[in-house]
Design a protein that fits this description.
Blueprint (H helix, E strand, L loop, with lengths): L2 H13 L7 E4 L4 E4 L1 H10 L5 H5 L2 E3 L2 H11 L3 H15 L2 H19 L3 H8 L2 H10 L9 H9 L7 E4 L2 E4 L1 H10 L7 E2 L22
Parallel strand pairs: 2-3, 5-6
Antiparallel strand pairs: 1-2, 4-5
Length: 212
């Protein structure tokens, strides 16, 4: 192990990180892998260090946030979402595919630290990787199916999101699932069931009309 890696690991231990859990070292590639939490501990413990330079030699293991997120949701969200993205890339027109990718890849990583873009690239053949790069560099046009895809991949159903033009109405479950895996600029509305819209026999007993 290189001297700089030994020094980095000493600093990680002193910052409170756990070897084998929060960080490790790949002898073959000579790269360090640390969790986001361990890196935050490191920065807090050594604020005077030039971490921009250090980061060039540190690789955050994407498996850590993936495992955490999937465990939290109780479902293989990442695997399901990667499959859904590949399907949408085949179905959507160019500018709509760009919008879809911008929302999904950016919103999920910002919310969960799961690098969907990196994971997607790893499983795409070279021709599709090239198309992915082109799509991310071109103009986009609104497409809102990304929202239902995220909710369903996270364990929801089609009934948890209703799309109408550029508006979406979500059930309480749909809203909870979406905000667990995505963040971005979009006005989210939770479906509200007004008491006046409920059938009479669903009202509390004291609100029912008195019998003759």
């Amino acid at each position: 192990m290189a001297d700089d890696a030994v020094e980095l690991f000493r600093m990680l231990v002193e910052a409170g990180a756990q070897p084998g859990e929060d960080f490790s070292y790949d002898m073959q590639s000579r790269s360090a892998q640390i969790s986001d939490l361990a890196f935050e501990k490191l920065k807090a413990a050594y604020p005077h260090v030039d971490w921009q330079s250090i980061c060039e030699r540190v690789e955050v293991d994407p498996a850590l946030p993936v495992e955490y997120l999937n465990t939290y949701l109780g479902i293989d969200f990442v695997g399901r979402m990667l499959t859904r993205i590949e399907q949408r890339l085949e179905e959507l027109e160019g500018e709509q595919a760009t919008w879809y990718l911008q929302q999904v890849l950016g919103g999920v990583e910002q919310r969960t630290n799961v690098p969907l873009y990196v994971l997607l690239q790893r499983q795409l053949p070279l021709t599709k990787q090239a198309r992915l790069e082109r799509l991310l560099r071109q103009a986009s046009a609104p497409c809102y199916v990304w929202m239902s895809d995220l909710i369903e991949a996270a364990g929801g159903g089609p009934e948890d999101v209703e799309l109408s033009g550029d508006e979406a109405v979500l059930t309480q479950k749909g809203l909870a699932l979406l905000t667990a895996v995505w963040v971005g600029e979009y006005d989210l509305l939770e479906e509200e069931v007004l008491e006046a819209d409920l059938p009479e026999d669903s009202l509390p007993e004291e609100d029912l009309p008195a019998g003759e």
